[in-house]
Amino acid sequence: MLMSLSRFASLLVALCVALPASAQFVGDVYFVAPSIALPAGGTGDLDLAIFTGDKPFGATVATLTYDPSKVEILSVSEGVNGDDSVHLQAQVEAGTVRIVALNPASLQRPIGSVVVARIRVRPTGALGERIVIRSAVSKALYADRTAMRAGSGFDAEIIVGQQSTSATSTLLAADNSPLADRARRLRPAGSEVGVITKLSDGRLGEVRVRTKGTSTVRDR
Amino acid sequence: MFIAILALVSCASKDNPEEIHDPVSSAVAFQIKVDSGIVQTGERLSLSVVEGQGDGVTPSEYQWTFSDGQKLTGKSVSAAFSAAGTVKVKLEAFAANQSLGADEAQISVVEAGALAPAAFGLPQAPGDIDGNHALELEDALLAAQATGGLIAVDADILGNADMDLDGRVNAADVALMQKAVLRGEPLPRALFNDSGRPGAVVALVSPALMTTGKTVDVKVDGRSAPQVLQAVRGYASFVVPDGVTKGSSPASVELVIGGTVTDRFQLAILDPVAMPADAKADVQHFLTELDAALVAQQDALKSQISSLSLSDSDSMALLAAGDASLKEMRRSREQFTTLLEGSDGEAMAKRLQQGLYANGLADFRNEGSKALALRAAAASSVPDPICDIVLPKLCALKSAVSKTGAASEILGGACSAVSAVALVGAARLRQPKLLALIELCVNLSVPIEIAGAISDFVDPIEPGLRLTADKTTLGQNESAIVRSEITFTGVEQLCSAGVSAGGTAILDKTIGRIVVGRVIKHNAALNVLSQIFAKFGDKKYVDFLESYVQAGVSNTLSATQISGALSDFAGKLCPDIRLGAAQAVAQNIIQQPAIDEGNLLFQADGTAKYYCAPAGPLFKSKIDLKGSKALCGGKVANAKISMTCATSPVTITMGDNGSALDDIYEVIVDGRTVLTSSGPIRSTSITLQLPRGRTTVTMRGLAAPDGIGTYFISFSGAAFVGGDPLSGSDLVPGTTKRFIIEIL
């Protein structure tokens, strides 16, 4: 596995926490890069994706919720997947973003992880604050217009501050640490996810956290 | 104009236009008489018997049987209906328990407040494509796929997706459907205009307008619109009130139903336009422009259609119809000119002038001054039937009709503004002058609205350019046939209606819908006009509307002539534009690539044969072939097609090879997922054509419930030259593996 160790301190933290079984299955919505650091007033993008499995994407209705006193949604634009794009309509109201994404271009693609929207954000919270954007999918269709299962929605988080771009110290997280809790909300159990957190030297950096799933059978 | 008719029918029916139904059998000496053939749900309808000269036996009892289950007796009865639809009525007469015969009639029951039944061509269930009586995500996807050409949907059903009532279904309608789905509402909430001036007509849609029986008001920056036309459930148009001025921010438009604000929109108020001081001369100038636009449209229609082999009789009929239309317009103009020279003429001209400018006359003139001529084809061009003949004809037609379409909108809006001001404004015109002005509007509206309807048909046909190839990935020593095509977006509707169903279908369904949509969006005065004529007992408007409904407008282009012309146009054009595109000569369009990007050999059949560049130090595996073509109005369209050279088949196989089958992965090449599964899978594969040289393949973990992602990947037809291990147990969600392969 090639990880971006050159940029950030990395640590795989195995967390033995009992969780409901969860995996990135068909119908799940999640953010491609779910944990980002942005200075107050700075702007960044969060790509929202849905996993369609091996059948082509048709349409989805999804909702994001957030605290409008801590982050502004500057724009919501169409997601791009290689040469494929989706048609998007979005409605931003205080604390809620609703999107309806359609695939008018193909009955065969895209498949798999399909980026449906790019959300441009600007945090207004205090330095060091963690701002959470929650996602939920209320309906999704394949390109043949049959219903996709209603999947889970995973969070994105914005840490207000400047992320360090150099390798710093490592961090060991306890099984029940706040870091583990955060990781489980960004990705399904059994995932590895880069989480932005304050490192031991006080700077913001990425720690890669791996959560443990609930299967009792070890998959070896 | 259809919409207002309904309001009028239900109003007028209370006064005089009662319907007497023809009896089933001429031997029966009685008939059903109903107040109206159309009734709203819950509204009580009176029915009675009209007795004629029979065989001497007088009926002693009449029995009424309705298809919704109601049964009544008596010579005069009344009935109300709870559900929309068609109700059949049977009247049977008896004497001494002997049936003397029966008569039957049919009543259209429309939803209360739904003023336009299906007969008028408007969507009865806006946005409902799948037939479940609701606008949902499935409907939006169906409409998107249909407008994208991915699936075929029956034109009548797809018509329900015409959310902006412009007579066609396109991306704008899909976007409106998405907006409705966003809110989980039966209709979107939207203004159809971004900007306007006082006196302009603006249309809107809102689910709040589906509520019936309540007053509807529109306020712009707190000022009530002088008139609001709610012709179709869910839709309304209004005149921007006087006194609203341009501010630093858009004006607030409030939809007020039953005294409650239900929607808020924003409307940019435009600066007032400087108007020539001589209003009479300016109005006359517009009428001259209108005349010229009609002449141009008739000329364009006639020349394009006749040059496409119309029969002599058809051509003559069209010529005659065009002449009649112009004659009617000119007659009205003469009358109007006489009035302008009389007392109040100046005030009348001022009002009309204000309405014309409020609804876009200045823009109309600016647009007209632009050069619309087609860019001349390159001198070196190879003769090309599509580009040299069909495209210029279409462009000329589009240019001509866009003028009349715009004029129609201006005139409709102006008449709305004039009648609104005349009715509620401080400077009331005296009654005879007002009527004369309205008569001008009505008379001019007949030819101009039909011209506008034709323009709405032709205008959306938008030529474009695309390049296609029989294959875009080429193996060693392979070549591809490349075609350049002129696409005609929007032509499908014309072709499907005109060729498969004949011109009548165009007229009955599409033009009807277009005209209704035009009225709703561009004219807020028709109900006012109808009230005026009803009040003054003038049946002219009623007659006009009825004649319009029957598509038998007597004094202008006839229904047969219009449908025949369009049908012929479609019949001649569509075979050349199968599937909305026609091949153009590639040599005139596609640029020869650079020497290291391959070679194009132009063929006698108008195609080009593409060969990849030979292997060498400058060899490029991926190149874009580019083309360009000047289309309507000289606008240059560009197109490209990406070719991948010297490809070889590469089979990628991957899966979960752990003890527990619980992991999901996806494989990405060139930014696109090419292989994945909907659940854990032991092995799955795909064969791709990949170019010679090195390619990076990415494998991403998506599910590993136990935190252990055991994976494998293998390549056939390519050598693995580096990257992550081809198998392992750490490919969990959030992690990726990269593999570099070399295709020889």
Number of strands of chain A: 15
The radius of gyration over CA of chain B amounts to 32 Å
Residue-averaged pLDDT of chain B: 72
Going across the biggest sheet of chain A, name each strand in turn.
3-13-12-5-10-9
Dominant shape of chain A: globular
What's the story with the biggest beta sheet of chain A?
A: 6 strands, mixed
Fraction of helical residues of chain B: 25-40%
Quickly count the helices of chain B: 15
Largest sheet of chain B, described in full? 6 strands, mixed
Give the topology, please.
The complex is a heterodimer of chains A (220) and B (744).
Chain A: E1 14-15, E2 29-31, E3 35-38, E4 44-51, E5 57-65, E6 71-78, E7 80-81, E8 84-85, E9 87-93, E10 96-102, E11 113-123, E12 130-142, E13 156-160, H1 178-186, E14 192-198, E15 204-211
Parallel strand pairs in A: 1-15, 3-13
Antiparallel strand pairs in A: 2-4, 4-11, 5-10, 5-12, 6-11, 7-8, 9-10, 12-13, 14-15
Chain B: H1 2-12, E1 19-20, E2 30-34, E3 38-40, E4 45-51, E5 61-66, E6 71-73, E7 76-79, E8 85-95, E9 98-110, H2 137-147, H3 155-158, H4 171-183, E10 190-191, E11 195-196, E12 201-205, E13 216-220, E14 223-224, E15 228-232, E16 235-239, E17 251-257, E18 260-269, H5 279-307, H6 312-341, H7 345-358, H8 361-369, H9 385-424, H10 431-458, E19 462-469, E20 473-475, E21 479-489, H11 491-501, H12 503-522, H13 526-535, H14 540-549, H15 559-573, E22 581-584, E23 599-602, E24 608-611, E25 622-630, E26 636-655, E27 664-669, E28 672-676, E29 684-691, E30 693-703, E31 711-716, E32 719-723, E33 727-728, E34 736-743
Describe what you observe in this structure:
The complex is a heterodimer of chains A (220) and B (744). Chain A has 220 residues and is mainly beta. In chain A, 4% of the residues lie in helices and 44% in strands. Chain A has one helix and 15 strands. Chain A is globular and about 50 Å long. With 744 residues, chain B is of the alpha+beta class. Helix content of chain B is 34%, strand content 28%. Chain B contains 15 helices and 34 strands. The model of chain B is unreliable at 1-28, 113-120, 306-310, 369-381, 422-430, 497-509 and 526-566 (pLDDT under 50). Chains A and B meet through strand 5, strand 9, strand 10 and strand 14 of A and helix 2, helix 4, strand 27, strand 28 and strand 30 of B.
